[in-house]
Amino acid sequence: MAKRIDVSGLTAYYGSHKAIEDISMTVEPRTVTAFIGPSGCGKSTFLRTLNRMHEVTSGGRVEGKVLLDDEDLYGPGVDPVSVRREVGMVFQRPNPFPTMSIFDNVAAGLRLNGNVKKSELGDIVEKSLKGANLWNEVKDRLNKPGSGLSGGQQQRLCIARAIAVEPKVLLMDEPCSALDPISTLAIEDLIGELKERFTIVIVTHNMQQAARVSDRTAFFNLAAVGQPGKLIEIDETERIFSNPSVQATEDYISGRFG
Amino acid sequence: MSNAAIAEKRPSTLRGASLPKWSPWAIAAGSVAVAVAVGAGAGLTKVQWGLISGLLFLVATYAIAAKVEGRRQAKDRIATGLVWVAFLVALVPLVSLVWVTVVRGVKVLDVYFLTHSMGLVADSQPGGGIYHAIIGSLEQVGLATLIAAPIGVLTAIYLVEYGRGRLAQAVTFFVDVMTGVPSIVAGLFILSLMLIFNMEPFGFAGSLALAILMMPVVVRSTEEMLKLVPNELREASLALGVPKWRTILKVVLPTSIGGITTGVMLAIARIAGETAPVLLLVFGNRFINNDPFSGPQQSLPLYIYQQYAAGNDYAYDRAWAASLTLIAFVMILNLVARGIARWKAPKTGR
Q1: Chain B residue numbers touching A53 (CB-CB < 8 A)
Q2: ∠ at Cα A169 (A165, A174), nearest 5°?
Q3: Fewest CB atoms within 10 Å of the CB: A15, A29, B98, B303?
C-alpha cells in the first residue's frame, strides 16, 4: 500500500516570493527519508507541497510535478482532498482537536470523511492507537479529552489520527521538536515500525535523529536569506553522514555553518 | 572584624521602609471621614462628598508614601489608587441605576402584572400589566434573532474562512458601516418599504429592523471568535483529507461555538432594549396580539416609553416595573450566555 513519490522540477512560491526552486527527488516506498538543512531553507514548504497543503497558505502556489505512483498530484482535475487522504501529515506541534475525546480524535478523519460503519470504527481506533504505541496508556480513558494528554502522548495521538485513514505516505514536519528525549525516542521507535506499512518523509533539525531513523537523507540549503531554498543532495543516510559528495553538506553536518 | 559584622554595617540596597499593608484602607477611611465632616459642615451634596474623599485619598496616599517609601513607590501607589477610584466612579452609575430600578420597580411587579395586558385599564388607572409587551418583545426579538444570527454567523464564516480580496474588504467595510447605523434609521428604512407596499404596522416589521441592527454585531463577534481558532486545527483536519466545508462545520465551529453563542446572546440583549424602530413599525397595542405578522403589537421598551409619557404615578410605577423586567431579561440572557460559553469551552481537564 505504500507508494513511491517522484518529484521533478518543483518550484513553490508564497505570493511573488520563490521559497524553493527546481527540486527533483524520488522517495521509495517503505523507506524513511529525512530532510535536513538550516531554518528557512524550504524543507517544510517542500514537505507541504507533497500533500498539497502548501496551497492552503494564502498566496501559496506550485510549479512542477509530484508523481504518486505515476499519478501527478498537480495534474488537471486532481482533488486536493483526495490527495490528502493518500498522503497524511503530522505537524510540528501536537494539535489534537480540543472539542473531541481521544476516541473521537482518532476517529475524526474517518468520521469527517463520512463513510465508515459504526461497528468498524472501534476496531480501527484501537488498531490505530496500537499502531501509534498509545493504546495501553489511553485504553481506559478513551472518552476523556485529547488535550488532557502529555505533549508526547498528544503527538502520538496525532500520529494515530493520521494513520487511521490508512494513507499511503506519512509526512512528518519536525514531529519531535516540541518533545522531551523520552517521548522523542517513543516516536522514533514508532517511525521504525510505521515504515513497514507507509512511505515516511520526516523534516528534522536534529541530525542525530536523521541518522537514527532514516534510510535516505536530503540536505537543503539556500544561498542567502531571501533566496529560494534548493536541494543540495540526497543520498543514503550513511553516505550523507560519513562521506557526502558536496562540501556544503559536510560543512553543515560537522557544524561549520548553519 | 568578622564577615558578619561587615555585612551588618553595609546599608541594605534591597530593603527599604514600607507602609504597612493596611495603610491604603486606613488612608481611604481617613479621607472619607474628613470628606464627610467637611461636606456635612459646609452643606455639600453627597456627590461632592465622594469627589472630595477621592481627591483626598489620592493626595494623602502620595504625600504619605513619598515621605515614608520614596518617590517611586509613591507613584506606584498613586497609580493603584487612581485605578481604584476610577473603578468606584464607574460603579456608581451602574449600582444606582440597578438600585433605583429595583426599588421603584418592585412596587407593582407581581404575577398579576406579568400575566395581564393593559386592555381594560386606562393609563391613568392603577392595575394592568405587561403580558402583551412580553409576548411582543419575545416574538419580535426571537424572529429578529432567527433572521440575523444565521446570516451574521455565515457572513463571519465567509470573512474568516473564504473571504479574499476586494469582496471581503467591501463586506467588512459595510459591516462596520452597519454597526454605526442609528436604530431610528433602520426603523425608517423598513418604514419606507412598508409605505411603498401600503402596509399597516405589525410585529414582524419591527423584527426586520431589529435584525438589521443585530446582524453587524453578530458578524463582528463571530469573526473574532473564529479568528481565535488556531490555524493548526484547520490544517490538521485538512491534512486528514477532510473537505474544507466539513472542517469548518466539524472542527472550527465546535471549537468556537461557546464564544459565538455568547456573541449572539449579547447581540440579542442589545436589540431587546431598542425603542425607536419598534415605535415606528410595531406601533404599540394595549391588547394582547400573539400574531407578529398582522396588527400592531406591544414591546417592553415601547411600553416603558409610553407609560412614562402618560405622566401619572400609576403609569410611572408600571414603567419602572417593566424596566426591571427588561433588565432582568437581559441579565438572564447574559447569564445563560456565560453558562453556555463555559459548558461548550474546549476541555482541558485530565
Answers
A1: 235, 238-239
A2: 100
A3: A15
